[in-house]
Structures are given as C-alpha cells and as structure tokens.
Amino acid sequence: MTVLATELDQVAAALRTARRDRRPVTAPTATWPALDADAAFEVQRINVDLAVAGGDRVVGYKLGNIAKAMQDAFGLDQPDYGFLLASTFAYEGITLARESYIEPFVELEPAFVLGRDLRGPNVTVAEVISAVDYALPAIEIIDSRVQNWAIDLPDTLADNGSTGSVLLGGTPRPITELSLRNTRGALYFNGREVITGNTGHILGNPVNAVAWLANRLADYGIGFEAGQVILPGSCLQAVPMNEPGRWEGVFDGFGGVGFEVSVTG
Predict the structure, then answer these.
(1) Which one of 45, 160, 206, 220 counts the least CB within 10 Å of its CB?
(2) pLDDT of res. 73
(3) CATH number for position 124
C-alpha cells in the first residue's frame, strides 16, 4: 500500500498546525499506517518548501537518535534526519519561553560548519574531515509534534526529525584541535550537572555520523553546501526542559553554550 500525494499533504498540514498551535497530534502512522520512511521524508520536504516559500532558508541538516541512549529513550532503533531552517536557530544566552514548545528536551552535541561542498553517495570520513571548516559546541532542543512522543521512525521523519531550536556556541575550533572520538560533554541546569556523555557515543565519532548522513540524504538527491551547519546527533540522553532556569552544555577542552528558560504560570 502506498501513500497518496493528497495524504502526504494531509500529514504535512496536520504537523504544520501542531507546530503553529503548539498542540500535539496523534502519530501520523496511526492515522496513515502506510506511511514509511521515504514517504515521511516527502512530508518533510513539503513543509520545508512551504517554509522557504514564506521567506525561511535551509541552512543545514541534522541527524538524530544516533546514540543508543537516545534510541532507548524514544523507543527507536534507527536514526532520524531532517533539514535545519534558519528560523529554528536561537542566539546563545537568550531566554526561551517554555510555552513556545510542546514537550521539549535538551541535547548537547558538536556542530560542524562546512568549508566546502559534500555530496554522497560513498562519502568517506576523510572527505568529511577535509570538508569541515570548524566545529562548535551546540545545543538542540528537540520537540515532537506527536502526542507523548509516541513515535516510530516515519513519525519523527515526517516531523523533520523532531527539531525545535538550535543554539550554537561561540568557540569555533578546527577539528584537528579536538579529540572527537573521546570528548566528555555534560549538561548543567542552574549550575548542577544533570547528565554526561561522550562524543564517542555518536557512531563512534561524530564525523562518522556526518558521513552516514551525507550518504543517506544522497538517496534523496540532497548534498551539503559550503557554509551549512551539520548536526551529527546528541552525545547524551536528552533531558526534559520544563522548569525555569539556566541550561549550559559544556565539552571538555572545547567550550560551551547556554541559554535561559522562562515559564509563565
């Protein structure tokens, strides 16, 4: 059974409305059981194209649920992936309103900014290293438009990889200065360490994850462009973002990134 173009438009519209109104919907696979990963990616494209037509920009791509801790937390056994739109980026140090999200979680990961184009298939780790201009510490706030995060892979793919917001830190480093296969990262809330992880949890090394993503998206005719931001996935299990206070993500010997959360009512 295939999903009709009209049904893809319906899935896309339901997720757009959920994002706009900050009210979750039933998992798309429950309503459209024929929705598979390829069809769900077409839903992504529908909403991204509409966003771009409305003045937004594609500025990169993301990989999610690559670490086992993340797959276990959300009941998935495969990574998800999506587009990064300029509208999802927020400034380091800003105050974000909890009410702007549905059910947000905070992740810590490195971000890579490309100095040259990178296109699969058959991208190697060496080509990724050559293409990366610099790395930055980053926080991604993931936020599913699916009720209670009851997601299968097509659900989170249709929802653009459950992206909420992205914040980049201000300590750019050449990756030759970093030990990306073994760098400790930690999330702090109001100065208290909440959880730790290691960049080695991101497919053994986050540059491996970038190669995987480049090759996967090549199946859809997508290549990465110089200047784009690539998020390879979290190095630790995501933490719920529900209370007011300050979040800080720090990588040993690399740098950090932080923001405030306000809660009304």
Answers:
(1) 220
(2) 54
(3) 3.90.850.10
Number of domains in the chain: 1
Look up residue 99 and give its two tokens: 């009410």
Q: Of 80, 84, 77, 45, give the one whose Cα is nearest residue 61.
A: 84
Question: Are 117 and 226 contacting, i.e. CB atoms less than 8 angstroms apart?
Answer: yes
What is the rounded CA–CA span in Å between residue 117 and residue 17?
Answer: 34
Task: Write the single-letter amino acid at 30.
Answer: A
Check if the beta carbon of residue 60 is closer than 8 Å to that of residue 229: yes
Contact 198, 204 (CB under 8 A): no
- Measured CA to CA, the distance from residue 175 to residue 121 in angstroms comes to 23
- pLDDT tens across 215-237, in order? 999 999 999 999 999 999 999 99
Q: Round to whole Å and give the CA distance between 139 and 90.
A: 10
CB atoms within 10 A of CB 21: 11
C-alpha distances (whole Å) from 178 to each of 59, 206, 242, 252 are 24, 11, 32, 10
